Amino acid sequence: MARTSILTPEQVPAESKPTLDAFAKNIGFTPNMMAAFAKSPIAFNAWATLLGSLSKALDVKTRDSIGLAVSEVNGCNYCLSVHSFTANHMARLSADEIILARKGHATDERRDAAVQFARKVIETRGRIADADVKAIRDAGYTDANVMEVIALVAMYSMTNFFNNVFDPEKDFPAVPEAGSI
């Protein structure tokens, strides 16, 4: 049951409207999460800026795989639906690769290192072992890339927490519940 209302276009604060309109234009509709998140122009626009910046980090398959792994750990079914959809339609990941990402792995060895690292960061709240840093570096990631993975984990966690708290109605194709794969 949703714990907050979804704003109609007329209710969107003026400071949120340009950002929300841009998302709607790019996606083709206004996702419920964004129509709720737009209630706070400060939080919504900060998140959108972070999302825009991090869309240049790594590659789309790795970003979506990290989003799936983090959302699975955080038990965010709304985000799992969104990331499964985008992983399939934008990153061109297969259904098996999507399930694998939710489990914290990838078929590509380099991407697997990043996804495993991201999952460990969220599971341990950043208290990872030296071996974990070594593993991602050994896969060819620079310290700057490692920082980008951490930033992606934080960004995805923000929307996971938002959606777990407010529970907007899902408007992307349903996926198996978190923890059921």
UniProtKB/TrEMBL annotation:
InterPro entries: AhpD-like, AhpD_core, CMD-like, Uncharacterised_peroxidase-rel. Residues 44-114 form the Carboxymuconolactone decarboxylase-like domain. Transmembrane segments: none annotated. One of its GO terms (molecular function) is peroxiredoxin activity. Pfam families: CMD (PF02627). NCBIfam families: ahpD_dom, peroxid_rel. This is Peroxidase-like protein.
